[in-house]
What we know:
Spore Coat Polysaccharide Biosynthesis Protein SpsA, Chain A
Amino acid sequence: MAARATRLALRAPRPPVPLPHPRLRGVRRRRYRLAQRDAGRLPAVRRSRGPGRCHRGGGVRLPLLPRHRPVADPPRGAAALRRRRRSAPGGGPVPVARAALPESRVQEDVTTPAVSVLMSVHNGAPLVGEAVASVLGQSDGDLELIVVDDGSTDATPRLLAAVVDPRLRVHRQAHTGLTRALNQALGLARGGLVARLDADDVALPERLARQRAFLARHPEVGLLGTAAREVDLAGALVRVVQPPLDDAALRRALIRINPFVHSSVMVRREVLARTGGYDEALAVAQDYELWMRLARFTRLANLADVLVVRRLGEGRVSVEREEDRLRTEARVRWRAVKSGAYPPWCALFALRPALALALPRSLRRAVRAGTVGLRA
């Protein structure tokens, strides 16, 4: 009985552990401080628990020490810490350069944006700055702008580098063409919604906000465009594009024309994933071919509001390679009829681009601009 009482007897409080030298630093100094603090708290814990709360070994279990990061070799760790402090200016902590990290790594640490805006640019120095500013100046700022610099040799890289905004992500690559550049941007996108804007067009401030609000009210719609104002290179108004609005009207128009302004569209990312993105075998009319495939999986819509300013000029792909565009549109329409999406008589619409190829280029441009009744 006496042995049991002896085993349960509490040990006398230990005096605080003194620091051997006031200039001791680093890991050893922290350990001495922790030991001194815990030695001072030990008598109070013993009195609060009483002799009946002691464990079998005769001591008191004290979960006093906070959780610390384990160190495999404390002496080596302390020496490394002292070397880092000596190498830092003023003996302070060694600064970490955030800019030295890869750009994609930096962007992954922030909240995922709601909208990813895709832009491809090749030697677009005169106008790309205004296009970028129109996206970053949206009233709904929950976005990221992914610009693929497709082998520009002018001042485009310098203009993009001068933009200071964490929402801008620039990917520079060798020239591959618009279609592959857009797929590259699509692979970098993180938003649940994907929007498009050409490097020479302008998005009006309310564009993304209105499109997001519409898609939130209509979850069945996966492809949404808007009306657009077309201007020449001097900024003079050419015309206002008012496309069909509802799904039924858009499907009727899709076999005859391209009823979406490419720079105005917003697509749900999960719908794009089902189609695989743009067809890289096509150099032109890649948007029209994509809309035809998207129509198999989702509903279509356009907003009547003019939310995009589209510039027309000789430098646009659809003008420079108009013959290729007409041939591609004919093939896309023919495949849509063969797939059963349209009745056989709609194959007549595949012949319209072929007939347009027989017209003079000036007349074809007039047809495309809407000054003549028919459009190829």
